[in-house]
Amino acid sequence: MADLSTYDPLSDVMGPEEVLDILLIDDQQITEILISRMLAESDDLTIHYCSDPRQASEMIQQIQPSVILLDIVMPEIDGLTLLAQLRLESGMRSVPIIMLSTEENPEVKARAFNSGANDYLIKLPDKAEMVARLRYHAQAYQNHKARQRAENKYRSLFEHSRDAIFLTEMKSGRIVDCNSASERLMNMSRTQIIGMHQPDLHSPRDVAFYKKLFDEHIQKHKEISTEIYIQRPDGERIPVDVTAVVFEHHGRLFSQWMFRDISERSQLMKSLEEILDVAEAANKAKSEFLATMSHEIRTPINVIIGMGELLKDPENTSDQQKRYINTLSQSSEALLALINDILDLSKVEAGQLQLDPITFDLRNLIQTIETIFSEPARKKGLELKVDMDPVLPDLFMGDEGRLRQILMNLLSNAIKFTETGNITVRVKKPKRPGEEHMVL
Asked: Which of 64, 208, 277, 369 is 20 to 30 A from 432 in CA distance terms?
């Protein structure tokens, strides 16, 4: 809870060496001489003198005094009459005025206080008392002005805030003030809003929840920061960010509620959710498509491979036909492996695709790749060469399908982007001892 009772606005505007101007209005100059002597050692108090009460208003406007010492008995205008006139002038209602008199007259003193005097002194008090009274009234006045400036600043921020602000009296739970933004948010006038209970800003179906929230805020002085809904008189519900804090002012507890309309943000989030839903639906449709195509594509490929195996029968083929059939069979198997990889796209997106290490014949794999790409290379006028270290073993452990896919991609691009010359695939033994990987 914010406690404003200990806040001293004077500290922001008045340093320790601030000079306090005192204006003496008295037709007898001896009074000015005596008071000047009293204040001679007080560097923070400066005396100004006005001998003609008819010029008092003009001099007050010039020096803006922190305290006025006003003699009661003067020939042109008596002090009580001037006091009443000054209190009617703009900006003079809060300036401390101390009446000076030569006698202790209860009736005159009462008239002075009823006319707006702040203090009453018999000419002239003790030096210490005079200095203490002047400082007390001057500093109280400066504090008053500082608080007024702070309140004016707060009021300006309060009125011009883009957020709707509601001030609620904690004891009654009633709204005691609100700003222009709250009128726009609620689509109600200020006079309509003031006097409502805070939970009344919400819809009947939500009021129980918000009343509980509000009661907890009141009882525990718990700050609130959440998203809720307010409801306009026409029934429209508006999503808002709300923060609420408790503060004390002149011994009373208040709660300040700030509502920020998040309708656009909520609409944006809803649009994003709709986009995500569409994207998820598209991914689901793609996965279903791949699942369907898996069967549709694999079936004819398997038929081609099966027919190739039948054509390998030595009774049905010549040597040249065997080479063509072997190429057909190897290409079909490579195509099937590639299609399997494509159809595994859903696993890639889910991060579930794993390598499948098996024992395979590397020489046979390289020869198969050479067989598949020799003809495309020849048609482009290129020569495809394979340089495989003879000391290498035949069998290796690894993912044969992934390696085949990599090699096919590399050779396909090599043929595509090579205009003249040759393309060589090299498989070497590791140069450094202890290395177990193979250099391709």
From this structure: 369
